[in-house]
Design brief:
With 188 residues, the chain is mainly β. Helix content is 7%, strand content 57%. It has two domains: 85 residues, Immunoglobulin-like (Sandwich); 92 residues, Immunoglobulin-like (Sandwich), CATH 2.60.40.
């Protein structure tokens, strides 16, 4: 970055893979002359997008201390290629595929529950952890939701949705899972 007038500057960049991933900002005082400015993008955020490949610094904007835009670059830079697993991992994350099945507990030929199974890897012993989700109909109307608690380790977790609530909703599938979350004891 070539600075012709010393002052406080804010440099903001937007990182994308196959879609927008993260923004980073660096506000600093810069004297006249050439400067390298580092934009640090959050590794947890990058990992959460599960994108493998080269990342694009889509936009870089420079704003002076009076909030005047002094420069903007589009498609500024392409990174080397990375696997998302090379970035910082959270204390717990979903791994692998999800499955669902109807569960008939009283053997009357009707499902008492819709079970959703997911593989989870919990890395931190700061548990317990909870998994929660909302079940929606094809119009995105919520039918029901559920939450279950788990301890650290790699395991298959199961959430069940009440078959009576699904039947009483009066709408056949397909159904959608929304807001599938994995939280630690602090809700984060």
């Amino acid at each position: 970055m070539n600075v012709t007038e010393a002052g406080n500057y804010t440099i903001t960049g937007d990182l994308s893979g196959n879609r927008s991933i993260s923004s980073a900002t660096n506000s600093t005082y810069l004297g006249k002359g050439e400067h390298n400015v580092t934009l640090s993008f959050d590794g947890l955020t990058i990992r959460a997008f599960r994108y493998n490949g080269s990342y694009k610094l889509r936009v870089v904007e420079i704003v002076d201390q009076n909030y005047n835009q002094t420069d903007i670059l589009e498609n500024a830079y392409n990174t080397s290629s990375y696997l998302y697993t090379q970035f910082e991992r959270p204390s717990a994350e979903f791994i692998g595929d999800f499955t669902d099945s109807g569960v008939d507990t009283d053997y009357d030929g009707l499902y008492n529950y819709l079970a959703l199974k997911a593989n989870v890897s919990v890395f931190s012993w700061a548990g317990p952890y909870s998994v929660s989700a909302h079940l929606l109909d094809s119009n995105f109307t919520e039918i029901t939701s559920n939450r279950a608690n788990y301890t650290p380790g790699i395991q298959t977790v199961s959430l069940t949705f009440d078959g009576i609530l699904i039947a009483d909703h009066g709408m056949d599938g397909p159904y959608r899972i929304s807001a599938l979350t994995l939280n630690d004891k602090n809700g984060t």
